[in-house]
Write a structure and sequence with these properties.
Layout lengths: L1 H5 L5 H14 L1 H6 L15 H14 L13 E7 L3 H14 L5 E8 L3 H8 L4 E6 L5 H11 L4 E5 L3 E3 L3 H11 L3 E9 L5 E3 L2 E3 L5 E3 L15 E2 L7 E5 H6 L13 H11 L3 E12 L16 H17 L9 H4 L6 E6 L5 H8 L2 E5 L10 H8 L3 E2 L8 H8 L5 E4 L7 H7 L4 E3 L1 H10 L13
Parallel strand pairs: 1-2, 1-4, 2-3, 6-12, 13-14, 13-16, 14-15, 16-17
Antiparallel strand pairs: 4-11, 5-12, 6-7, 6-11, 8-9, 10-12
């Protein structure tokens, strides 16, 4: 049946429209036929684990490398290092292989490593090496690098990381794509490709929560830019001017831990947004620098500094969520409501609704996979896009997540889904796309976001 269907004399556009219609009218038929190919004629995207394997293989096959040296870099990549030479070399090698289009520089702050480490790093062309004569810890090493940086943006990167292609350019682009952004962090994955962190939340008791930990990194819930409480210092970018205004990483938390959470809340306190950007992906060998035990060594400071953090921010933490049980609401808690679009294409009015403070979710149906560049562009701008195989049908999504929506927008091809929407979204206003434009004109205009001039 599937082979016969694809021999029909249909244009790519006609087939795409037909699949959209069939996915709404007969989703089980589409699923039974295994029609998961992209109607745009593109290759299926590789899974995260496959992309991680490919990048690690490229590192093994690369021997010599050098870093570009720009006279006026836009971004300063700051890598604090205390030995762990093999990890550091892989990190620097991956930066070279990623070949960012943005002019950048790499500063390694050597925090009193062994002589062999300093000699090896000193031989890398294009690298700016700064050395501490005594071990001063992660926070002071980062601040040392920031003081020597030339770029407009600072990108702090752990040395036990491997960056993926597009990692740096995507972080820079986020500042233009999402107004009011003051800090943006990468998606962190484990060496096996599972998700380590999709941004972080802080609960009322001051406990940090790494969003999506140990989940599938390709799940739609973790695959759109989103405002969070903070992003891990393993890979985060901030304007150099703003970092200076905030006093850098606070030495109150020396030698390490909680400085990134503290910075995130300070950025938000200034009226800026902290954004998690999934299209900037970094492999992170968690715990390589300081181990995993919180009873010995530098890692012991994690427990101490969490108490310091709670004491400092206790007045603000009472507005945070209570814990992981309310995760779905918590991850989008900066938005005032949610709207689901069951439409063939996402209307422009959806983005206007997003600007009014609503989290927009789009379910285009027809067995869509995340390989259409239009979808990626929407995800980069903060739209949650649902696709197969993670979300096989609109009715299934409505059954499990319908209570989260205040608006459900039904396109012409989604008429058959209207009954499910009324059943599972009793509190939602169900409208046609044409009615959305009228609603938007009646809705009060939002206050202009505060976007400081130096951003």
């Amino acid at each position: 049946m599937k082979a016969a269907y694809f021999r029909l004399p249909l244009s790519a556009r006609a087939r795409a429209r037909h699949l959209r219609l069939m996915a709404f009218l007969a989703p089980q038929w589409v699923e039974n036929q295994g029609i998961l190919v992209s109607p745009y004629g593109m290759e299926r995207p590789l899974s995260m684990s496959a992309r991680v394997d490919r990048q690690r293989r490229a590192l093994r096959e690369t021997r010599d490398f050098e870093l570009p040296l720009y006279e006026t870099p836009q971004v300063s990549v700051i890598v604090p290092v205390h030995d762990q030479l093999a990890f550091t070399l892989d990190c620097l090698k991956s930066i070279a292989l990623s070949a960012p289009a943005t002019p950048f520089e790499v500063l390694v702050v050597d925090d009193a490593s062994q002589e062999t480490t300093r000699e090896a790093l000193g031989g890398i062309k294009g690298l700016r090496l700064i050395s501490h004569s005594e071990n001063e810890g992660f926070i002071r090493s980062c601040n040392t690098g920031a003081q020597a940086a030339k770029g407009q943006y600072l990108l702090f990167l752990n040395n036990d990381t491997v960056v993926m292609p597009g990692w740096l350019d995507t972080l820079v682009e986020t500042f233009a794509q999402i107004p009011g952004t003051g800090l943006v962090g990468s998606r962190l994955v484990f060496p096996d490709g599972t998700l380590q962190e999709a941004g972080c939340l802080i609960w009322q008791d001051g406990t940090p929560w790494m969003i999506g930990r140990f989940q599938d990194a390709d799940l739609p819930a973790y695959h759109y830019a989103r405002e969070v409480d903070y992003c891990s210092g393993a890979s985060l970018m901030i304007p150099r001017a703003l970092f200076g205004e905030l006093g850098g990483f606070d030495t109150h938390y020396c030698p390490a831990y909680c400085e990134d959470a503290d910075l995130g809340l300070k950025v938000r306190q200034r009226g800026y947004r902290v954004i998690y950007q999934p299209f900037s992906t970094v492999i992170h060998w968690e715990g390589m620098s300081n181990g995993r035990s919180t009873h010995t060594g530098v890692k012991a400071w994690q427990t101490i500094n969490i108490q310091k953090f709670r004491k400092r921010w206790s007045g603000q933490l009472n507005t945070q969520g209570e814990g992981p049980a309310g995760f779905d609401r918590a991850k989008d808690r900066t938005m005032k409501g949610r709207a689901l679009f069951l439409t063939a294409d996402l209307p422009q009015d959806a983005l206007a609704l997003q600007q009014q403070g609503f989290q927009v979710t789009w379910f285009p149906g027809y067995g869509l996979e995340p390989c259409d560049p239009r979808i990626e562009n929407l995800q980069r701008r903060g739209v949650e896009v649902l696709y197969r195989p993670f979300e096989p049908s609109a009715e299934r999504h409505l059954k499990h997540q319908g209570s989260r929506y205040q608006y459900v927008v039904l396109g012409e091809e989604a008429v058959a889904t209207a009954q499910a929407a009324r059943r599972y979204c009793p509190q939602a206003q169900i409208v046609q796309p044409s009615a959305l434009a009228d609603m938007d004109r009646q809705r009060p205009a939002p206050e202009s976001p505060l976007i400081p001039a130096h951003l």
